[in-house]
């Protein structure tokens, strides 16, 4: 599949990336580099609530159903999401009707009514979303882990807010927030998929966004860093979630891409060893995985699983022993590198075929590094990795500042940390 995106700018400075693909549909994302990190405890959840109001009605489509139907009858859908770093509107449609999707998404973004009755109705919807999310398996651990594993600007902010703040939102407050946080200077329009006429699409975007605000949005990239800690949140659950985390010294910047690729190869092989012994041989857990956690620019290498508390000591000791063996005896080897490289190639092939994955990567790269995602350069960088490179950039991966975070049935994370230290030798 061809990959040759092009970057344009509208007359007001709004960047537009067109990523043409030979498929039957087209994906559009309008993204802004702001999110829950920009909020305060008093207005927690306001960005997410504004997101909901985009689809609650415009002068052309006065309510949610009419907004959705305007796209669905042309063979498409629209949605939106809010995170720590960003908020986006996204949609997908059969290619010949791309102009309808762009028109409807722009209308939702530029002309929301912020109708008072709709605001009150949406408060019930968002509070329901908050309660539903709280009941989801793993949500409590994910939130507790992030709040303890990192410190810095907005880390503890909840994307959905809290029922008390949600109930407090007023029309003028929501309008002011939208006017402050949405601008061509922190925005991006990206389109991946079949693009039949680039000039026509760019002219349409120019006409729709010519009067969009172009002011500087305060805030920029938040300061975040790893937090070395021991933390437990006791719940009524009968099992315990655990995250054993080590600071990743290569923070999230383009200059450390090669080092991060080496860590990814190492982590993939470590995952295989964990699974083969702890799940395959011992049968102690359903699943266990080492992963990369990012908040802002800070990163952590984590080992996570969910298990009954009485089995935690054995699992932690095995994780430590496998880590030590991989670092000091049976080190990461050529066979593991080949396996990890092939796994990456499979993922890249799937990525090339997916407009949704491509558009997400394009947006993230542009906001993080200010450049277009260069697929060939990234592929060649990955292919150039040697076993010695992985050894060089991961030799101290388990010697970095360490945190142990648990959530669920009662346990002692300080004791579990000591078990790791006793067995990593």
Protein architecture, described:
The chain has two domains: 6-209, Metalloenzyme, LuxS/M16 peptidase-like (Cytochrome Bc1 Complex, Chain A, domain 1); 224-423, Cytochrome Bc1 Complex, Chain A, domain 1 (2-Layer Sandwich). Helix content is 46%, strand content 20%. The chain has 15 helices and 13 strands. It has helices spanning 46-54, 64-72, 98-110, 116-135, 139-149, 163-168, 171-181, 198-209, 257-281, 312-328, 334-352, 355-369, 375-383, 387-394, 413-423; strands spanning 6-9, 15-20, 25-32, 76-82, 87-94, 150-152, 187-193, 224-226, 230-234, 240-247, 288-295, 298-307, 402-408. The strands form three sheets. The protein has a six-stranded mixed sheet, sandwiched between helices. A five-stranded mixed sheet has the order 9-13-10-12-11, sandwiched between helices. A two-stranded antiparallel ribbon has the order 6-8. The mean pLDDT is 95.
In short:
The chain is an alpha+beta fold. 46% of the residues lie in helices and 20% in strands. The radius of gyration is 23 Å and the shape is globular.
Question: How many helices?
Answer: 15
Low-confidence stretches: none
Rg, please?
Answer: 23 Å
* Order of adjacent strands in the largest pleated sheet: 1-2-7-3-5-4
Order of helices and strands: EEEHHEEHHHEHHEHEEEHEEHHHHHEH
Number of strands: 13
Mean pLDDT: 95
Shape call? globular
* Beginning-to-end CA distance, first to last residue: 48 Å
CATH fold node name of the largest domain = Cytochrome Bc1 Complex, Chain A, domain 1
CATH homologous superfamily assignment of the largest domain: Metalloenzyme, LuxS/M16 peptidase-like
